[in-house]
Design goal:
184 residues; alpha+beta; YbaK protein; 7 helices; 11 strands; YbaK/EbsC family protein; YbaK/aa-tRNA-synt-asso_dom_sf; YbaK/aa-tRNA-synth-assoc-dom
Length: 184
């Protein structure tokens, strides 16, 4: 297991610490193959340090090993379509190019915070690709999929997960999408 991306933090198997997971995340991890679920580590953090830059600085976690999960929405025919994108923290999602085309909408944008929180059942600043609503597409940047391990949210602001990139790319609804992320 490669949980070293969590820097100075001590990690435990995520399913051993359900108190550090959003309910949807715990249920999604429990539904994985037990061998895969055991590869996901969780570490408790100060919730005030959940934002990526603050987290990396406080806990000596490399920024290039952190991934962000952003919720995107767009309308088509009066219906709102949602997707989640997982990109490295050193990049930015191509929302109005690649994501808009994948969602097949005229215009895509980051979903409003309150709506993203309500629909995912996760805390803002802790939204993670593990445990997203059924049917949502999950677009994963190739750099994330290829990473030995990345740090992502746990669904709550009080912890972070260390997850193999290949595991993220194998989640339900996941698709590795070339050009998803652009360098900042």
């Amino acid at each position: 297991m490669s949980w070293a991306v969590l820097g100075a933090l001590r990690a435990a198997p995520a399913l051993d610490r359900p108190d550090l997971l959003a309910d949807a995340v715990e249920h999604a991890l429990a539904s994985l193959d037990p061998g895969d679920a055991a590869r996901v580590g969780v570490a408790e953090i100060d919730p005030a340090l959940a934002d990526t830059a603050e987290f990396c600085a406080a806990y000596a976690s490399p920024l290039e090993s952190s991934a962000n999960c952003v919720v995107v929405s767009g309308r088509r025919g009066g219906h709102v379509r949602f997707a989640a994108c997982v990109i490295l923290a050193t990049t930015r999602a191509d929302v109005n190019g690649v994501v808009r085309k994948r969602l097949d909408v005229r215009k895509a944008s980051f979903a409003p915070m309150a709506e993203a929180v309500e629909l995912t059942g996760m805390d803002y600043g802790g939204i993670t690709p593990i445990g997203l609503p059924a049917g949502w597409p999950l677009f994963v940047a190739p750099e994330v999929a290829a990473a030995r391990s990345v740090v992502i949210g746990s669904g709550v602001r009080a912890s972070k997960l260390a997850v193999p990139g290949a595991l993220l790319a194998s989640l339900p609804g996941a698709e590795v999408v070339d050009g998803l992320a652009r360098e900042v």
